[in-house]
Amino acid sequence: MELMRPLLFLATCLGLAAPAAVGQWSVEHRGSVLLTDTAVDQHGVPFAVGGLSGITHAGGATWLCVMDNSDKVVILDVVQNDDGSIASAAIVGGLTLEESRDFEGIAHTGAASGSVLISDEGVPSVREFSLSDGRLLAVRPTPAVFDHIRPNRGFESLARRCESGDSWTANEEALTVDGPPSTPTNPTVVRLLRHDASAPDPVAAEQYAYWVEPMHGAFLPGQTGQSGLCDLVALPGGLLLALERSIALASPLFLSRIFLVDFAAASDVSAFPALDGAVFTPATKTLLWSGPATNLEGLALGPPLTPSVTGLLGIVDSGDPLSQNRLEGFALIGPPPGGCICTTSSFCATSQNSAGSGALIGSTGQASVSANTFTLTATGAVGGQFGLFYYGGGQAQVPFGDGLRCVSSGGVGTFRLGPPQTIDGAGGLERLVDFTQPPAGSGSGAIAAGSTWFFQLWFRDPGAGGTGFNLSDGLSATFCP
Length: 481
Fold this sequence. Notes:
The chain has one helix spanning about 5-15; strands at about 25-35, 40, 45-50, 50-55, 60-65, 70-80, 85-100, 105-110, 115-120, 125-130, 135-140, 160, 165-170, 190-195, 205-210, 225-235, 240-245, 255-260, 285-290, 295-305, 310-315, 325-335, 345, 360-365, 375-380, 385-390, 395-400, 405-410, 415-420, 430, 450-460, 470-480. It is mainly β.
């Protein structure tokens, strides 16, 4: 097996069954921001912040980090610039959980659920907690093979695929039955574990072998050091990002690597009691980024920043003399992953009307189908007149009435959110987009998770002396589950 392991590792690196998405995405580092060291929990009790080891995006500017060897979640407000650099970052709150464990990975479950999944490294498990009060809600089952973890090398990573609710986790270095830990010359094999959430009670499903890189340098004094899998990020099409961290007697002392992972051709090894000596096809991996970031332990996908840039944030664990509470900004460059991200943005142009410089469309609530709180708003329209929101599958910018029509059918159609309403005296209007009722709830206008639609307000304006009607600018919305 000592000969087989390096050969299998070499085959993986050379790209057996190379994923179709190779070249579709790249990752660039965009700098870092230090965080403070205190937070206040839901009971008003302050606590020291340190050992941040996992991070997840919770919508808008809200991000959540979990602290290891504690019962604490830290709430952040973070804004990234269009290039992925961090414009601002602040600790704005905290949450005390029902349990204190060696928590490492964290994944938000969506606006409707109001909970987070957190992975436990010490006794490998994935546990769900309420974000309102920290109660333990459920525990996803752990296959018995993970009883063979090495100390402090359990479930370090966690990702959730929001379209399905499935979660992914993995041991940090090889189980004792699967092979040795990493060395300066040899990789270590870990098991990627998927939990299937298609039923009310998620179950453990496939496992895939994944080779973690060797250490990037010599052993530290005392034959210490390691190279392990620290975190996972779910991408569409069954792909993952994997964050690996190496600690070695080298410059830099810490080396982080981000890989694109594909297991389309990989063997399901869930029935294997041991990988040491077994024959299997591992997941393939493609290096997207490598660099020094001290003790970078967590990585999470954020919202789209531009049509070709999606935000990524990493979190640094302060549990060693060189590392501090720090956020690392990254840009995932390529097509927006979509599917799980609720975003809105303005487009097109408004036109002057009899009430002023023009009507503007916006929204409140979340662009989440399950939350069903997405509400269209308008300001600057003509008070006392009728207005009607409508939406379609495409963008336009063509003269219409006294303004511009910003929405087209996009090959799908345009749909009225009727009946017309009376605009208030301040020129404002709002309407809930009800995903349980037509047109948004059924038929060709049905709004589904992962879809993008375009909205505009039409309103009467007889006082302008033109055609008698006008329109707002446009609003683009991408909906999540």
